[in-house]
Amino acid sequence: MKVELHLHTSRYSVCSTATPTELMEALVAAGYQAVFITEHDTLWDPWELEQLQGQFPAIRIFPGMELSLPRGSFQHLVVLGTHDRRYLEMSDDPAAILAKARQDGCLTILAHPHRWEEASKMLGEGLRPDAIEYRTSNQDGPTAELALRTAAQLGLPCVNTGDVHGLDLVGRFWIETARPLQDAKDIRTMIVEGTYCNCARQE
Ligand SMILES: [Zn+2]
Ligand SMILES: [Zn+2]
Predict the structure, then answer these.
(1) Using an 8 Å Cβ cutoff, are 159 and 191 in contact?
(2) What does 108-137 look like in DSSP terms, one character per residue?
(3) How far apart (Å, rounded) are the C-alpha atoms in residues 67 and 87?
(4) How confident is the model over 92-132, as pLDDT tens digits?
(5) How far does the centroid of ligand 2 lie from the alpha carbon of residue 164, in Å?
(6) Could you tell me the residue range of the domain that residue 160 belongs to?
(7) CATH for 56
(8) pLDDT at res. 56
(9) What pTM was estimated for this model as a whole?
(10) Which of 38, 58, 135, 160 has the most neighbouring CB atoms within 10 Å?
(11) Are 180 and 174 in contact (CB under 8 A)?
(12) How many whole angstroms from 136 Cα to the centroid of ligand 2?
């Protein structure tokens, strides 16, 4: 299953240049079968996501978020598979967020750890997400290689994501899962057990 793990729409992320409808159309056209919408420091309401899902039966649309830890900082954690708004109030406590996500069965991914120095602060503090971003539209070339090395050193899986902020970023980096995702929480199991592969478009 072709999956996008990290995507921003113009509805809730000011940095995104494409609407939810435009993005879902582009993902379907590019052969994606599942997507997690991960806006900056906010969540879609369940009914709203359901409405979008109704418009696009060809792709599974799952909830997620990209949290800045703390708010306004350049350390970003993607949390996948939940509508729980309590995460949004916990941005001062990365350890508590990681523990809650583990308990809830939600996947945590440290976003672009080598994009900025501050981006991987939690690793220096001994905190461990479930996975680390490898190649994305915001982290390719040498910074992606650094991320791969960091993941290997810590024994953590690394994942390709689009970190999509516009239509031009759809279909560059993604993962393929060995089995279809039945439920949003399946993603954690698959990444942790390694039943997926990282993919990138040949440039
Ligand atoms: Zn980010
Ligand atoms: Zn992002």
Answers:
(1) yes
(2) EEE--TTTSGGGGHHHHTT---SEEE-SBT
(3) 8
(4) 999 999 999 999 999 999 999 998 889 999 999 999 999 99
(5) 7
(6) 2-200
(7) 3.20.20.140
(8) 98
(9) 0.97
(10) 38
(11) no
(12) 9
